[in-house]
Write a structure and sequence with these properties.
With 383 residues, the protein is an alpha/beta fold. It is built from 16 helices and 13 strands. It has two domains: 197 residues, Glycogen Phosphorylase B (Rossmann fold, 3-Layer(aba) Sandwich), CATH 3.40.50.2000; 177 residues, Glycogen Phosphorylase B (Rossmann fold, 3-Layer(aba) Sandwich), CATH 3.40.50. It has a seven-stranded parallel sheet, sandwiched between helices. The chain is globular.
Length: 383
């Protein structure tokens, strides 16, 4: 089977697809996989580091402002990306195309649907993104992370509530592995702070202030992923405090950080929340304030309503508030255990298997132009 996956920009648009791919390749390592993204997205570095082929296309997000003129650059890029996508489909000749959301997935999924190649979208957020909404009636199937998302689609859309895949390697480490990886004290409680794959300035600022407040507590230790922009500043601030803290611009093996942790402070991207649930971790969530359609706040509120998280809005976030929230959870054993249990109850460990089964089912279908694509693909390969 040949699978081509489009999407990127953030880790949340990359890692769910990687989870499905790893499941498929565990079944049959002959499955051919190729990714499609942009040169500026995180996928340009992450995907090759995982050993997968990646093609680059031109794509830009649609502007939040209404009006044709403001949309012209994005539409022009989409046309270029569409032409590039047809070329990739002819070269790869996939049995099925997967879109993981975000503007980078639009051109390829659209092109595949036009030529009859089976398509599936993975939508991890409670509120579907614009790409998913625009393509919903064209694709063959949509895999949803949450049942609450169903209400945003028209009747007749082919939906499956599967949950969002988590990479097996992310949950493989033990707590002891995590503590050893970061050189942490097993007798202390660990708080892992990160603002997503690129970091978050407001969370970094609040953490530095909170660390100063929490400095007298010898029972706490911290891991923080700052992103590259704030890394040196956070390192300098922590060096002035008597606090056990490990500071990194980016953590490749984030599963070890999760496993070492008793509490996570983070943004509320759907992929992150899926990972927290898979590991049964309580969290303090600070939704990204500029997310399209406020989807991160909707994601976070869902976990808060289930008793798995505490939500602090970015505009309200201060060092004192963050310090109080950390202590209120991590130092209250009953509350911590309840939140951990509630978080774990949201996990869908069979998500990778369910999406993989859908892909295999779709791949058995023959595209309307599959013979033409095969002939042209052979010509391209010969050249």
């Amino acid at each position: 089977m040949r699978v081509t996956i489009a999407g990127g920009g953030t880790g949340g648009h990359i890692y769910p697809a990687v989870g499905v791919v790893e499941y498929l390749r565990a079944i049959d390592d002959r499955i051919h996989v190729a990714f499609v993204g942009t040169r500026s997205g995180l996928e340009a570095g992450i995907v090759p580091s995982l050993g997968y082929k990646i093609y680059s296309i031109v794509a830009k997000p649609l502007p939040s402002k209404k009006g044709l003129m403001s949309a012209v650059p994005a539409l022009a890029s989409a046309m270029v990306g569409l032409v590039q996508s047809f070329g990739i489909l002819l070269l790869e000749r996939p049995n099925v195309v997967v879109g993981t959301g975000g503007y980078a997935s639009g051109p390829l999924v659209f092109a595949a649907s036009l030529v009859g190649i089976p398509t599936l979208l993975i939508e991890p957020n409670v509120i579907p993104g614009r790409t998913t909404t625009l393509l919903a009636r064209m694709v063959d199937r949509i895999a949803l992370g949450f049942p609450e998302s169903v209400r945003y689609f028209r009747k007749g859309t082919n939906l499956r509530v599967t949950g969002i895949p988590v990479r097996p390697r992310l949950i493989a480490p033990t707590r002891e592995d995590g503590l050893k990886r970061f050189g942490l004290d097993p007798g202390r409680k660990t708080v892992f702070v990160f603002g997503g794959s690129r970091g978050a300035h407001s969370i970094n600022e609040a953490f530095m202030a909170a660390a100063a407040v929490l400095q007298p507590r010898s029972d706490l230790q911290f891991i923080i992923q700052t992103g590259t922009a704030d890394y040196e500043r956070v390192v300098a601030a922590m060096s002035k405090l008597d606090v056990c803290c490990r500071v990194y611009p980016y953590i490749d093996d984030i599963g070890y950080a999760y496993r070492a942790s008793d509490l996570v402070v983070s943004r509320a991207g759907a992929s992150t929340l899926t990972e927290l649930a898979a590991l049964g971790l309580p969290s303090i969530l600070v939704p990204y304030p500029h997310a399209t359609l406020s989807h991160q706040e909707e994601n976070a509120r869902l976990l808060e309503a289930r008793g798995a998280a505490v939500v602090i809005m970015d505009r309200d976030l201060t060092g004192d508030m963050l310090a109080r929230a950390i202590v209120s959870i991590i130092c209250d054993r009953a509350k911590h255990e309840t939140m951990s249990r509630n978080s774990g109850s949201l996990a869908r460990p069979e998500a990778s298997r369910e999406i993989a089964a859908n892909l295999i089912e779709l791949a058995k279908a023959k595209g309307r132009l599959s013979k033409l694509a095969t002939v042209l693909g052979d010509i391209c390969s010969a050249r």
